[in-house]
Amino acid sequence: SQKELDYCYDFVMKLTIESAKIIRDAIQGGKNIETKAGDWDLVTEYDKKVEQILIEGLVKEFPTHKFIGEETVSKTNILPELTNAPTWIIDPIDGTTNFVHAFPHTCISIALLVNQESEIGIVYNPVLEQMFTARRGRGAYLNGKPIKSSDVFELRQSLVCIEASYATIEDIRDIILGRFEAFVTIAHGIRTLGSAALTLCYVAMGAADVYHTDNLMPWDVAAGVLIIREAGGHVIDTSGGDFNIMKPRVLAMGNRKLAPELVELVRLADVKTHRRR
Ligand code: LIP
Questions:
Q1: How far is the CA of 3 from the centre of ligand 1 (A)?
Q2: Is the CB of 94 under 6 A from ligand 1?
Q3: What is the ipTM of this complex?
Q4: pTM score of the predicted model
Q5: Which of 41, 194, 254, 271 has a CB 3.0–4.6 Å from the CB of 37, allowing a cystine?
C-alpha cells in the first residue's frame, strides 16, 4: 500500500544518507582496489562495506523483501531472477572508477520494485550533495525540488552522454567506437561521466539530453530509470523496443520525440561497423 511504501521510502532514505558518509569520508584517501570482470571493472573495500550496511539494515526492517546487490551478485556471479516480491536493487557505489580516482561523480543507487515495477528510486551523490529521488506517479526531485527533463527533440541540438571505458574491451570495441563516431559527429557535445545512475539523473534534470550505453547491469539503472520517467523523460532499449531492467541496454532521452532518430543512428552505426570488419 502507499502507506507501506511511504514507510519504506523514509526508512531507506535515512539509511542511504547514513551509509553515504563512508563514501564522503573515503573518497580522498587510499583504497584497496581489486578488479572484477576486467582491468576497467573496479571494486574497493568501501563498495562492499556500503552494500553490507544497506542490506543488513533493510533485511532487519523488511525480512520478507528480496535483494539484488552489485557486490553480493559478483560474489556468486549469479543474477537472481526478478520476482513479484518487493525487491531492493542496490548499487553501493556507482561510479567506482570515479570514486577510486577521487572524481566527485559517484553515488549510491537504490530502487524498490514491487510486482516488477519500480516504486522508489534514490540516487545520492554525497560528495556534491545531490539527492535525486522519485516515487512512481509522484514526480522526480533533486534535493527536494521538482526536476523536469529537457524538450530538445533533435540530436544536433543535444548534449549526449555515453560510456567510454567499454572501448577497453576488445570484443565490443568496434561497436562502441562506431557509435561514438556517430554521436560525436552530430551532437552539440559528448560527455562521459562514469556513473550510469548519475547520468540518468542528469538527463532527468535536463542537464543532458541523451544517454546511451549497452552492457550495464540492473543496479546501474533501476533507480535512475524511474527518476527519468517521473521527470518526463523516456527510456527504451537500444533496439527501439521496451526497456528491460534486468538486461539494460539504454537509450535514455529527455524527450520521446528523439527516439526514432537515436534508434536509427545506432542501427546505422552498427551496420557500418560490421561492414568494416
Ligand atoms: C559503473 C557504471 C559506469 C559504467 C561501468 C559500471 P559501478 O558502475 O555506472 O557508468 O560505465 O560499467 O557499471 O561498477 O561503478 O557500480
A1: 33
A2: yes
A3: 0.91
A4: 0.96
A5: 41
